[in-house]
Backbone:
């Protein structure tokens, strides 16, 4: 077989294994997936207003660093009622007893970055309907939409029809995945502007004090603060505080 014929045969698989480098956010029923321009994706159940939430994240490429978390409450929830998650999860009204050998287990948080443990958990839950607490019926994770979100994640990262896909697996070997897209280069930083002279600072603050007296500002004149900083060689930023509590300022760009 000629070299160019071999190349044509290889081309379809290269087209399949591609990475999408554009950020996206999309909802599938009760799940939302968000991917950045490095094809790092996070799928999360929502709205989560009853406390129970599942999060599944993965990087593009071979070094995918997956993460699956189930959380009941957060660091700000305070002490939560009921027993630990590991003993009190129902999958479609039946007790869920996952193998937690490779999980981080806390009373109200379960997490794993182990690929086999994640595969085993998804095998049980991808086609299920709900995950909920035994002692709090309203604390429910609807699983509708999770499969579609993870299929999109596989597609964004070029894993579909490969052994590393979470949903639509195929014959491509585990490490046959495209690398993450190259990140755009940040522009070179602008040179730092020269500091304002004492005369320039005084003149701009005097201007700001005069200007705020003719503008609508609720803060008492004696409590107003005026600050000025150079932006470039020909521009300065003037801030005048106008409210207490929240950080609220009038802003001018001076040339």
Residues:
């Amino acid at each position: 077989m000629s070299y160019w014929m071999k190349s044509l045969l290889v081309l379809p698989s290269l087209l399949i294994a591609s990475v999408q480098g554009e950020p996206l956010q999309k909802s599938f029923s009760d799940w939302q997936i968000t991917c950045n321009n490095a094809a790092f994706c996070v799928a999360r159940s929502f709205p989560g207003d009853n406390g129970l939430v599942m999060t599944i994240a993965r990087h593009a490429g071979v070094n995918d660093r997956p993460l699956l978390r189930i959380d009941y409450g957060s660091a700000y929830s305070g002490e939560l009622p009921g027993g630990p998650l590991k003993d009190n999860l129902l999958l479609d009204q039946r007790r869920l007893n996952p193998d937690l050998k490779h999980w981080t287990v806390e009373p109200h948080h379960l997490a794993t970055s182990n690929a086999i443990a994640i595969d085993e958990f998804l095998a049980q839950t991808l086609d299920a309907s709900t995950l909920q607490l035994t002692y709090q019926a309203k604390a429910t994770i609807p699983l509708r939409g999770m499969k579609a979100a993870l299929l999109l994640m596989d597609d964004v990262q070029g894993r579909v029809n490969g052994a590393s896909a979470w949903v639509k697996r195929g014959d491509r070997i585990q490490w046959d995945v495209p690398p993450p897209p190259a990140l755009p280069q940040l522009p070179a930083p602008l040179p730092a502007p020269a500091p304002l002279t004492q005369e320039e600072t005084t003149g701009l603050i005097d201007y700001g004090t005069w200007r705020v007296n003719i503008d609508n500002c609720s803060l008492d004149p004696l409590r107003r603060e005026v600050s000025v900083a150079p932006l470039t060689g020909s521009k300065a930023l003037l801030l005048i505080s106008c409210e207490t509590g929240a950080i609220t300022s009038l802003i001018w760009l001076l040339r």
Q: What stands out?
A: Residues 198-214 form the longest helix (17 residues). Residues 145 and 240 are 48 Å apart (CA to CA). The chain has two domains: 15-156, 198-254.
